[in-house]
Amino acid sequence: MFNAERNGMSRFVFATNYNEGEDFLALYIENFLHYTDESCSLIINLAPGRRLADPALRSAGRVHIFNGETHRSKWGMGIALGHLESYAYAARHLGSFDYFCTLASNALFFRALDKQAILNRLAAGGIFPEAHGRDYRADHDIPVTGFERDEGSWAWVGFNQSASFRRCLADICRIERCTVTQIEGFVASREDWDIILAFEPQIRLLQAALAMDPDDPRNYMAVEEMLFSTFVMQHGSGRFTHLCFMFWDGLGRVGPKELLSTLPALPPYLCSAKWFERSITDPGAILVGTEAGRALLDACRGGPAIRSTMLAQLRHGLDGLEAAPLEETSIAMHWGDLPGWMGSASIRRTLYLARQYEQLLAGPGDPLATHAPFFLAEMAHVPFELSLELAGAENELSVVATGSFPLQRQSTALAGYVYLSCRRPVSEFILAFDTREGAERVKDRIVVYDNAHDYQLMSPIRISGSEGNVRLHYQMRNEAKHRIMSIGLPCYGRLFTATRMTVLETPVQAELSEAPALVA
Predict the structure, then answer these.
(1) In terms of DSSP bridges, do strands 380-392 and 344-354 run parallel, antiparallel, or are they unpaired?
(2) What is the pLDDT of residues 473-482, one digit of tens each?
(3) How many CA atoms lie within 13 A of 462 on its CB side?
């Protein structure tokens, strides 16, 4: 079945479930075409009913665009079924090929695909992905009856709660052992994917089984991370590998620094990386997704002296574009028309955590659509008594967030995030704390969210002030400065997140006339 020597004749098909804007899709396709050769094809699976306005974005040459039948979301079966749809499309329309690979819309190629290195990795049985900050060895060869080890992926929490899903895996799909791995850059042979596709009727029954389980586990179980790897191990060759490198540590974003340092030093089978911002103004995406960007990246790789000179010249040329200093204002300045906001709010609520959104202010309306304050649960299957105080002042908003777990009063676990938005684009935001201990607890746990698909874990660019007024300064990245974002503050059991929030609004004249938006 497997022959590492046939790389010269091997054809690869890649597939992406795509939900984002058309401008970034054009960059995404150019990135693929530049770093792969004529033996490689790309399938773009759009959401049901979506139509592209740009006539240039259509199936042509090595790129195939079609509308899937599955509505996709971050959790549940949607992403897995989308990839299975793409494989079925490839099997029907693309003729002969040898390998199929699942990609992500926020993963881009950073160097040319090395087929021989990938096939050597497959032949060597390299099933564990190489990544920053995550080891999947604890997630391999798990009984379908449930995960009982001390360590492992968060996905097993939902798996253990989903008795109907596990029973369907065992009885209908004939699965005895399971394996969780990353779906980004997952490569397996066509023979193995044919086996998976032959199980499509049984796999679709898994969706119905998942819906039967209590507490809606579809909201917190990403099935694609275990489905394909499990079928390859149980019914196929037992061989798969990954060509995408994941930045789980730190900010988790790919920028110029990573493109010039970490990524070139990786083994040659790794040629794609995640996370890139899905934006045509993102520096990392520009460097690998445009002709000019790639030329600049190549020049910077010419050596330390050349790089230093070039970067110094770029900085000097950009000095004249620096905007006038912005003024700090309260994040609640534009909350006046929000139902339930009277300048302050005291919220006491008992929640049953199930990775759900909870509206915090009284009144009608979807908080995600109106950018009103909301709570996003991170845990599942436990009650939590939320306590939140919001108090507005002229130039800041005071926030005190805490709570307790009734079944485990001493627990200081992270229950979720309180999300607050200026309801206007902001360039920076500042969190002020009375103590360094309070600042240290949350400084690397702040999240910004576009209320749709894009999350980003943040760390401060600098820390100022002293005891009694410790100030953490955060800077929005690239296109986030021109979009309305929500800022997530961690909420723990027993521990207090007590801060004063100010923002620096993005000047109107600096905003993009039509900032790229994520498409649902």
Answers:
(1) antiparallel
(2) 999 877 678 8
(3) 4
H or E element in which residue 390 lies: strand 380-392
CA within 13 Å, CB half, 184? 21
Q: Please state, as a whole number, how many other Cβ atoms lie within 10 Å of the Cβ of residue 444.
A: 13
Read off the pLDDT band of 510 (50, 70, 90): very low
Closest CA to 276 of 292, 258, 294: 258
- pLDDT band, very low/low/confident/very high, at 380 (cuts 50, 70, 90): confident
Question: Which residues on adjacent β-strands are paired with residue 263?
Answer: none
Q: How many residues in the chain? A: 520
Model pLDDT for residues 278-288, shown as the tens digit of each residue: 888 888 999 99
pLDDT tier for residue 513 given thresholds of 50, 70 and 90 = very low
Is the Cβ–Cβ distance between 108 and 185 less than 8 Å?
no
Among residues 513, 47, 21, 33, the alpha carbon closest in space to that of 280 is found at 21
b (16+ CB within 10 A) / e for 333-348: bbbeebebbeeebebe
The tokens for 469 are: 């007024």
